[in-house]
Amino acid sequence: MSRIIAGAAGGSPLVSVPGDGTRPTTDRVKEALFSRLEAMNMLSDTRVLDLYAGSGSLGVESASRGAKSVELVEFNDKAAAVCQRNAELVNKVAGSKVVTVQRSRVESFLARVAEAGVDQWDLVFIDPPYPLTEIELALVLELLAPRLSPFAVVVVERSARTPQPTWPAGLALFADKKYGETRLWFAEPAGDPTNPSV
């Protein structure tokens, strides 16, 4: 059973998505990822976007650890309902609506926020299902790049057997790490030297 690892809601069990339509991040990878993000001071008081959220595990972990706001974007009905339940758990602990859920296709969501000119995000998780093509992922990254704050970090989680994502002009890779069958890629707004390479 997956759980929130640390923070205000640390130790709380998370509802999982029934069936095999999602690929949850393992607790081992999640612990390593969030240790790295905490070392980079990327969790406290940040605006977080969790795309292809699945159960919302990465987003609610961020909220538990002090994120200012978290948006979970998930199109699948069952997964979106699970996101809502996990969001409610963290919001109850926080005493406010820190986590919100958007039932939407990722591309549609990003197109809408671009038109609306909404606030930019500081930390973005992209953990798409394996069938998503590299071309589709590149489009998502291109739509996302203009909506990032100057010191943002984008984390892409994919199978270790997939190629490095194609980064648009507004994003640059600064680190990657393999954990068994999973690889994480870390990118930042291009031309911003202040995010540390680790």
Automatic annotation (TrEMBL):
Keywords: Methyltransferase, Transferase. CDD domains: AdoMet_MTases. SUPFAM superfamilies: S-adenosyl-L-methionine-dependent methyltransferases (SSF53335). The keyword Transferase applies. GO terms for molecular function: 16S rRNA (guanine(966)-N(2))-methyltransferase activity. Its EC number is 2.1.1.171. It holds the Pfam family Cons_hypoth95. It is an enzyme of class 2 (transferase). This is 16S rRNA (Guanine966-N2)-methyltransferase. It comes from Arthrobacter stackebrandtii.
